[in-house]
Q: What sequence folds into this?
């Protein structure tokens, strides 16, 4: 992370209009540009759009664009509203041309800052493939602790991570 200037990295609450921009449906009215490599596949962006719509319907606004200045370089946020145990699970993704440069680490530190101000959240959870070293390092650099493993029918063995606020 020291090799790159990440001082311009911020989060912006994502809206349905932003997803329209990311999917090429229209120009961005917020003045944002898109990383040259794009963010995610159109199919995944549509899945995320529906997930964020469900969050918004539940009154939860815990999903963000990752910005480097005015350029969208990724997405991150809660996968669901806080549960009865006051936990949220997070997910994140960074544009292919911005990976391994500290963007995810910086974004997750900002998500944790947002979660600390969310009165409905006491712990932030994450899952990573046991083979995904880059994501493990993002979480470890942000103070997450390894909380176990589980097997998922679709994704195989997953590492479980936890950050208590």
A:
């Amino acid at each position: 992370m020291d090799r790159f200037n990440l001082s311009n990295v911020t989060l912006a609450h994502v809206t349905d209009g932003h997803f329209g921009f990311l999917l090429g449906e229209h120009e961005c009215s917020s003045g944002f540009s898109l990383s040259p490599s794009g963010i995610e596949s159109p199919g995944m962006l549509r899945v995320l759009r529906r997930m964020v719509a469900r969050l918004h319907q539940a009154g939860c606004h815990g999903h963000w664009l990752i910005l480097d200045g005015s350029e969208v370089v990724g997405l991150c946020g809660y996968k669901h509203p806080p549960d009865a145990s006051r936990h949220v699970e997070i997910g994140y993704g960074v544009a292919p041309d911005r990976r391994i440069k500290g963007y995810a680490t910086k974004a997750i530190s900002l998500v944790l800052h947002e979660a600390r101000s969310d009165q409905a959240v006491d712990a932030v959870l994450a899952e990573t493939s046991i083979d995904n070293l880059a994501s493990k390092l993002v979480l470890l650099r942000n103070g997450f602790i390894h909380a176990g493993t589980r097997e998922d029918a679709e994704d195989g063995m997953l590492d479980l991570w936890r950050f208590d606020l």
About this structure: The first helix runs from residue 16 to 22. The beta strands are 9-13, 33-34, 63-68, 71-78, 87-94, 123-129, 145-152, 156-164.
